[in-house]
Amino acid sequence: MSDIFVFVEHIQGAVSDITYISLAQARVTANVTGGKVVALLLGNDKALATRLAADEVLFVEHPSLAEYSYDANVKVLADIITERKPGMVIFGDTSIGSDIASGLSARLDLPLVSFCAEIKETDRGLEYVSQICGGKVMAEGKIPAGTTLFTLLPGKFKVDEGQSATAPKVTSLTAPYLGGLRVTLKEYQEPSGEDIDISKENILVAVGRGIENEDNVAIAQELADALGGAVCASRPVVDQGWLPTTRLVGKSGKNVKARLYLALGISGAPEHVEAIGSSDVIIAVNTDPNAPIFNVAKYGIVEDLIDITEGLTAAVKEEKGG
Ligand SMILES: Cc1cc2nc3c(=O)[nH]c(=O)nc-3n(C[C@H](O)[C@H](O)[C@H](O)COP(=O)(O)OP(=O)(O)OC[C@H]3O[C@@H](n4cnc5c(N)ncnc54)[C@H](O)[C@@H]3O)c2cc1C
């Protein structure tokens, strides 16, 4: 009857999508363990609990938890986990989730499954699937007894599967002493507003290292123009300076929620995939049939991206009457 805890990640007053995705995974897992789904909300705004699909929300209120603080979060969570001994604690596989989960693992000497793609029931019991080596290796293993920590990748569940129309029961807990924090947030720095905001675009043509050179980015741009969308990129493309950082999708860039996300020559590393899981339809074009991007894509094309892009652009232009 072990409970599944989910850490509620929130930034600037909004719950991150990965939290709802984690709650959906927790529900499936709790149905196997027979335990409860418990959300851990650390902050100063109880209203963030409203849409969490959890049996209970443990709310710890403190000004030092309003914005992200590693020290404050780890201190509070260490106390809760030690006292309540859940079977699992799920964090998002994000910068914040990885930061806290690794710190807790070291502090409490608990096992941590990073890059977790799925927790599933098998005839051997509950097992994890972890997407390691930049997504090239899928490691599977049995979940040990006691408390295990996870950082979960998006892909398996949709955001709305972890949302509820009825507000959950919220239990307030007293925060421990949170003075003397080593690092505190001074301000958020938004990227310069001189470019479009890819997180608001409905149609995105994303280019990865497979695009090969800067000149080829123009081919993707032509398709985006024909579709009425925008071009964005994975990190190698931005690192090369072929597109500005405002177009970067992923852990170090932006999360996107496109209606159509066309991934051209992108392998599907966890740091990229975590930011595209809320898109409605992902189509991937890749010459490697085993590229992990196909695990999250609704449609996949194993072909050279230049051929497909030029063909698609011509077809879209023809459909739109030249
Ligand atoms: C802390 C940290 C933060 C990171 N943040 C980000 C981030 O925000 N965003 C991000 O994207 N990455 C990020 N990364 C990097 C990430 O781990 C990957 O290295 C990166 O996403 C890989 O980019 P890619 O898929 O374009 O390149 P690759 O992994 O090299 O994949 C290129 C793909 O193109 C395919 N291909 C090659 N030629 C063709 C062709 N002609 N036609 C079709 N397909 C072709 C190949 O089969 C391959 O699958 C981060 C890494 C770290 C450690």
What does this structure look like?
The chain is α/β, with parallel strands linked by helices and 322 residues long. It has 2 domains: 4-173, Rossmann fold, CATH 3.40.50.620; 198-319, Rossmann fold (3-Layer(aba) Sandwich), CATH 3.40.50.1220. Helix content is 27%, strand content 26%. It has 8 helices and 16 strands. The strands form 3 sheets. A 9-stranded mixed beta sheet has the order 9-8-7-10-6-1-4-5-11. α6 (270-273) links the parallel β14 and β15. The protein is globular and about 65 Å long. The termini are far apart. The model has no long low-confidence stretch (mean pLDDT 94). Flavin-adenine dinucleotide (FAD) is lined by residues 134, 208-210, 234-236, 248-253, 265-267, 269, 271-272, 285-288, 291, 304-305.
Number of helices: 8
- Major sheet strand order: 9-8-7-10-6-1-4-5-11
- SSE series: EEEHEEHEHEEEEEEHEHEHEHEH
Task: Describe the global form.
Answer: globular
CATH-derived architecture of the largest domain: 3-Layer(aba) Sandwich
End-to-end Cα distance: 62 Å
How big is the Rg? 21 Å
Fourth CATH level, the homologous superfamily of the largest domain: HUPs
- Kindly provide the name of the CATH class of the largest domain: Alpha Beta
> What structural class do you assign from the helix and strand content?
alpha/beta
Flag low-confidence runs: none
Major sheet description: 9 strands, mixed
Number of domains: 2
Bound molecules: flavin-adenine dinucleotide
> Mean pLDDT, as a whole number?
94
Strand % is 25-35%
What percent of residues adopt helix (DSSP H or I)? 25-40%
Kindly identify the CATH topology of the largest domain.
Rossmann fold
The number of distinct β-strands equals 16
